[in-house]
Amino acid sequence: MDQHRRGSQSASPRPAEPPSVADIVNSGDPFSVLGPHEVSPGRWEIRAIVPDVDAVTVLDRDGQTVLAPMERMPPDGLLVASFSAAERPDYRLRIERHGSTEIRHDPYSFGTFLSDDDLVRIGDPTSDAVYTKLGAHFLDLGGIQGFLFTVWAPNARRVSVVGDFNSWDGRRHLMRRRHEGGIWELFIPDVTPEQRYKFEIIGLHGNLLALKADPIAFAAEHPPETASILKSAPGFDWQDAEWMTSRSAQNHRKAPMSIYECHLGSWARVPEEGNRYLTYRELAVRLIPYVKDLGFTHIELLPITEYPFDGSWGYQPISLYAPTSRFGTPEDFAAFVEAAHAAGIGIILDWVPAHFPNDPHGLSYFDGTHLYEHADPRLGFHQDWGTYIYNFERREVMSFLVANARFWLERYHLDGLRVDAVASMLYLDYSRKAGEWIPNRYGGNENLGAIDFIRKMNEVAYATSPGAITIAEESTAWPGVSQPTYTGGLGFGFKWNMGWMHDTLRYISKDPVFRQYHHHDLTFGLLYAFSENFILPLSHDEVVHGKGSLLGKMPGDQWQRFANLRAYFGFMWGHPGKKLLFMGGEIAQEREWNHDVSLDWHLLDSSAHKGVQSLIRDLNHAYRSIPALHERDCEAKGFEWLVSDDRDNSVIAWMRRGDDEGSIAVVVSNFTPVVREAYRIGVPVPGFYREAINTDAGRYGGGNVGNLGGVTAEAVPSHGRPCSLSLTIPPLATVILVLDHEGSEAKI
Prior knowledge:
The chain is built from 17 helices and 37 strands. By secondary structure, it is α+β, with helices and mostly antiparallel strands. The chain has 4 domains: about 20-105, Immunoglobulins (Immunoglobulin-like, Sandwich), CATH 2.60.40; about 115-230, Immunoglobulins (Immunoglobulin-like, Sandwich); about 240-625, TIM Barrel; about 635-740, Golgi alpha-mannosidase II (Immunoglobulin-like). It is elongated. One of its GO terms (molecular function) is 1,4-alpha-glucan branching enzyme activity.
C-alpha cells in the first residue's frame, strides 16, 4: 500500500486563492490540487470534492481521531482541511450526508499504479497488458480494497469514473492522465464488485460526450441497459486440465471436426416463463448432452460478446471482453465451457473484429476523436452494416483486438475463434464503388493494416493457447488464408468453404430433372478443395432473410424433400473437409430461423424429422470412427474420383483414404428419384465393402433400398481399376461403403 501512497504529489506553494471545483474539474490534472499537499514545512492541506454533503471530517488512520474538519471554500464548494503533521498523513474521510455517516479512503491519497513498462506493454500486440492493466481491476492494498480504473483516451481533456458509488457525478472521481501512453487511471477505494460504472469524458474540443462503457469491461448490464459491471479478479476454479492437455497434442487437420453452430438465444426458450432465454448453466445441462448425443465434436457460438441489439445476433458487439449478460454471469459462462470440455466437446466463439456499432456508449468517437475508427468514412465506415471499421494501422487498436482474441482463449479456455467477415477487412474496396475507397500506399486495394493485424492475431493465438484453432469466414480467393504466416499466409487454421456451400446448395435446390445440366456444381469444388484447410459450412446465413430453411430449399413432394436433404447431408459428410451445421438443420426445421423464438422441437414427433436427426447422429459417428473420412480431409492424396462425369444419371462417386492406405471409404450419391440397379463402380482393392451409411434406410424415413449391408468387390475391371462393385443405388440417396478387412487377405 505504502508504495502507492508515497510521492504522489510533490510539495508546492499554497495558491493565493483556492481553486474552484470548476477549475479542478477542467484542469485534466486533479492530483495537482486534490488529496494531501504540504503547503509549508509541517503544514498539510487535504482537499476534496464531495458534493451534496452535510459535513466532511479528516480522521487519522484509525478512523476515529479527528485531524481537522473540512471547510467549504467559495465560490463553489471545494473542501479543504488544514493541520500540522510531521510526515505525510495517512487519513480517512468521514462523510455525513442526509443523516448517514460513512468513513472512506481518499482516492487522491494514492500514487500512480501503472508503471512505465505497463504503458509500453499496453501498445504491444504480443502482450496481455490490455486486459490485465486496462479496465477495472479489483485490488486489495493491505486491507484497503477497491478498484483501479484505467482507460485509453489520449485526446480527452478530462475523464471521470461515474457509477453507483458516486451518484454518477463526474466531479467526484476525476482521473489522472498518464501522458506517456494517453492512459487515464484512478484507484477508487471502498468500491465493491457488481456495481455499475461508465466513463464520463470531455472530448478534445471541450464537449461532454455520452457516457462511455468501459472498452475492457469484463461484464455488462443486461440490454437495453448499457453500463459496465465491476467484477473481482477471475476466480473460476477450472477442472479441465486433462482436456486442455489432450487438446494441445491434437492435430486438428487430421482429426474429425464436426461443428454444431448455435445461437444460444433461440436454440430453446422457456415458454412457460415468458419465453425467456435459457441460462448458461441451463444450456450446460440441456444443450451440451444433446450435442454430445448427436456426435458433434464442437459447438460454435454465434457472438456472445456483449451487444446491445438482439436482432444483430451478436454481430454488432459493444463490450468485446464481456460475455453477454442475457444468459448469466461470466462465471456462468465459464461453467458452460467447462461442462462442454467434461463432455468431450470443444467451444468455438464467433468473433467479430471486422466492425463495431455506432451506439453512443460504445467505441465510436470515444475520446472526442475517431480513436478506434478511421476518421475518413471511405476507410472507417461499413456502408452495408452501418457500422464503423477499426483503424487496424493504429498500434493500440491492433493491441486491443489481438489481446481480445487471446483473452477469450486464455481466460475462458475456448477452443477456437471463427473470425467473421474476413473479406471485409482484407479489401479496401469491399462492397464499395469507384471513388468510395482509398488505395493503399502501393495503389492497391489490400488493407495492409488489417493483414498485419490478422497475421499477428493468429500468431499470438497459436503461440499462447496450444491446441486452439482459428477459422476464417473468407468469401474470396485470397491466397493462403489457412497457411502459416512464415510462408506468406494469413495464419488461420481453417477457412470456411463458401464456394462449396453456394455451388452445392444451388444444385440441390434444382428439380432432379434439371440437375444433369448443373452437374459441375457438384464437381467444381474439388478443383480447389485442398488449396486451404476447409470447413464445409451450412451456417445460419443460409437459413435467414427469406432464404428459407435447408428443408425448404429442397424440391419435390414431401418424400422427395426429405430424401433430398438426407442425400445432401450424406454427400456433405462424405466430402473432404470438416463439417459445420447450424442448429435446426439436424431436425429438418421447416421454417427459416427466427432469433426471437425457439427451434420447433415438436417436429421430432414426426418420424420424418426424427429420421433426419438419427441420420446426423449416424453420420457423425461414421465420420469420427472411420479414419478414411477424416484423416486426410485437407490432403489431395486422400481423395480419388471414381465417377465424376455421369451427369445423365446425376450420380457421383469418389473414394476417401486414411493415413493407412488400406483405410478406404467409397461415397456414392444419386440425386435423382430413380433406383440405379447394378451400377458398377471401379475400386482398387478386392474385399467386402460394408454399407456404413445409407440415407435411404427406413430408420431415417427412407424406402430401405440398398445393398443388404454391403457388397463384395468382383474381379471385374471398371473405370480403370482391377475390381468393381455392382451397386443398388437408392433414389435420392447417398451411400457410404467402407472396406472391411476382417477375414480378408486384401492388399493394395
